[in-house]
Amino acid sequence: MKIAVIGTGYVGLVTGTCLAETGNEVTCVDIVEEKVNKMRNGEMPIYEPGLDLLFHRNIKQERLTFTTDLAEAIAPAKVIFLALPTPPGADGAADLSYVLGAAKDIAKLITEYKVIVTKSTVPVGTADKVTAVLKANTDVPFAVVSNPEFLREGVAVEDFMKPDRVVIGTMDEKARLIMGDLYAPYVRQGNPILYMDERSSELTKYAANSFLATKITFMNEIANMCELVGADVDMVRKGVGADARIGKRFLFPGVGYGGSCFPKDVQALSKAAEENKYDFKILNSVMEVNETQKKRLVVKMREHYGADGLKGKHFALWGLAFKPETDDIREAPALYIIDELVAAGATVTAYDPEGMPNVKKLLGDKISYAKDRYSALDGADALLIVTEWPVFRTPDFDFMKEKLNAPVIFDGRNLYDLDRMKDHGFYYNSIGRKVVNQ
């Protein structure tokens, strides 16, 4: 099947590449000529494990191509995916200008029936708006389909190739059959394709991400409660997660959620509720708690060093990306922590396996950057752990003590065993567990 993907951000590039992997001919469109030229030459614009292999293979076999010419891409395409940014506006609502602008451009170019798919995360009613724009600019028949993505950064290729479910929102029978054929190779293991109306499909994505964000936030609240009553959140997490009705996933406490999806989607759903005169109390609380949780480590540091004790201190920070196996720093808790520390008069040297180039673009020389995890410790008064990269899980603790000015760790991801930290002689302050003193 011939396919066009409009937008080569994270969702667009993963979608286009994975669709090409099952034999489709995919043309990806982007307005940035420099980016398109780099992709044509095999240069990946994002870091995502496993994607580079599929990317290069499908370029070599000429199933995956890139262009800045919208007309060239959509002319042969049976299905056109819109994978465009929907950033939050000043009021928190999703900005649909890129999606609706692309719909208008497409309408002026199509000459035969096309299936136009909103792949971006969009508010309820977006398919209706896209339909209205298309109808206002063409008499050619078309169908608008809502097909939300459920890709987890770090395992996006696996999520696309072997999805838990595929959600397709359309009332057009022809479009339903086309989308069913397109996704059939990805659900051979028996996972469902769920057909529904467009509005239900659009709300499904927001509901899923908001529920997961709520689950994370609830465990962060439990962790904070554990510290007050002397319980261990790891034990509570295991006891709760063993209940099949709840499950083990998304129960790990930490310094809050970040990334491109959860913050934006929770905010957008809350805003949509407000626009429909509904007070979504749970989501409003989730956002409030998460903002506080991002700075939880700094609160612990102030308690340890005193109200003005951060001034003049130098800290090592492990982890900048919002989660491991990605270079995405959007809404990353590390950025909030850095802002707090620098504002308090402290200095920071950070290390992250993939996120440093993006942070350098954003922060410049506001902080320093280390070549590896141990170099970051040189002259530091304490270590902060903010992202749970595998490389941070089994360090040489004796060597760390030699590098640090003092054996102090503030761990926002609970990477280490408490007894082990005590045996190694560290002051160790984590989330929802007792503090280990030297």
TrEMBL record:
<keyword id="KW-0560">Oxidoreductase</keyword>
<dbReference type="GO" id="GO:0000271">
    <property type="term" value="P:polysaccharide biosynthetic process"/>
</dbReference>
<dbReference type="InterPro" id="IPR036291">
    <property type="entry name" value="NAD(P)-bd_dom_sf"/>
</dbReference>
<dbReference type="InterPro" id="IPR014027">
    <property type="entry name" value="UDP-Glc/GDP-Man_DH_C"/>
</dbReference>
<dbReference type="Pfam" id="PF00984">
    <property type="entry name" value="UDPG_MGDP_dh"/>
</dbReference>
<dbReference type="InterPro" id="IPR028357">
    <property type="entry name" value="UDPglc_DH_bac"/>
</dbReference>
<feature type="active site" description="Nucleophile">
    <location>
        <position position="261"/>
    </location>
</feature>
<dbReference type="Pfam" id="PF03720">
    <property type="entry name" value="UDPG_MGDP_dh_C"/>
</dbReference>
<feature type="binding site">
    <location>
        <position position="323"/>
    </location>
    <ligand>
        <name>substrate</name>
    </ligand>
</feature>
<feature type="binding site">
    <location>
        <position position="264"/>
    </location>
    <ligand>
        <name>NAD(+)</name>
    </ligand>
</feature>
<dbReference type="Pfam" id="PF03721">
    <property type="entry name" value="UDPG_MGDP_dh_N"/>
</dbReference>
<feature type="binding site">
    <location>
        <position position="86"/>
    </location>
    <ligand>
        <name>NAD(+)</name>
    </ligand>
</feature>
<feature type="binding site">
    <location>
        <position position="121"/>
    </location>
    <ligand>
        <name>NAD(+)</name>
    </ligand>
</feature>
<feature type="binding site">
    <location>
        <position position="30"/>
    </location>
    <ligand>
        <name>NAD(+)</name>
    </ligand>
</feature>
<comment type="similarity">
    <text>Belongs to the UDP-glucose/GDP-mannose dehydrogenase family.</text>
</comment>
<comment type="pathway">
    <text>Nucleotide-sugar biosynthesis; UDP-alpha-D-glucuronate biosynthesis; UDP-alpha-D-glucuronate from UDP-alpha-D-glucose: step 1/1.</text>
</comment>
<dbReference type="GO" id="GO:0006065">
    <property type="term" value="P:UDP-glucuronate biosynthetic process"/>
</dbReference>
<feature type="binding site">
    <location>
        <begin position="150"/>
        <end position="153"/>
    </location>
    <ligand>
        <name>substrate</name>
    </ligand>
</feature>
<feature type="binding site">
    <location>
        <position position="35"/>
    </location>
    <ligand>
        <name>NAD(+)</name>
    </ligand>
</feature>
<feature type="binding site">
    <location>
        <position position="153"/>
    </location>
    <ligand>
        <name>NAD(+)</name>
    </ligand>
</feature>
<dbReference type="InterPro" id="IPR014026">
    <property type="entry name" value="UDP-Glc/GDP-Man_DH_dimer"/>
</dbReference>
<feature type="binding site">
    <location>
        <position position="258"/>
    </location>
    <ligand>
        <name>substrate</name>
    </ligand>
</feature>
<dbReference type="InterPro" id="IPR001732">
    <property type="entry name" value="UDP-Glc/GDP-Man_DH_N"/>
</dbReference>
<dbReference type="InterPro" id="IPR036220">
    <property type="entry name" value="UDP-Glc/GDP-Man_DH_C_sf"/>
</dbReference>
<feature type="domain" description="UDP-glucose/GDP-mannose dehydrogenase C-terminal">
    <location>
        <begin position="316"/>
        <end position="418"/>
    </location>
</feature>
<feature type="binding site">
    <location>
        <begin position="250"/>
        <end position="254"/>
    </location>
    <ligand>
        <name>substrate</name>
    </ligand>
</feature>
<feature type="binding site">
    <location>
        <position position="205"/>
    </location>
    <ligand>
        <name>substrate</name>
    </ligand>
</feature>
<dbReference type="InterPro" id="IPR017476">
    <property type="entry name" value="UDP-Glc/GDP-Man"/>
</dbReference>
<keyword id="KW-0520">NAD</keyword>
<protein>
    <recommendedName>
        <fullName>UDP-glucose 6-dehydrogenase</fullName>
        <ecNumber>1.1.1.22</ecNumber>
    </recommendedName>
</protein>
<feature type="binding site">
    <location>
        <position position="330"/>
    </location>
    <ligand>
        <name>NAD(+)</name>
    </ligand>
</feature>
<dbReference type="GO" id="GO:0051287">
    <property type="term" value="F:NAD binding"/>
</dbReference>
<dbReference type="GO" id="GO:0003979">
    <property type="term" value="F:UDP-glucose 6-dehydrogenase activity"/>
</dbReference>
<dbReference type="InterPro" id="IPR008927">
    <property type="entry name" value="6-PGluconate_DH-like_C_sf"/>
</dbReference>
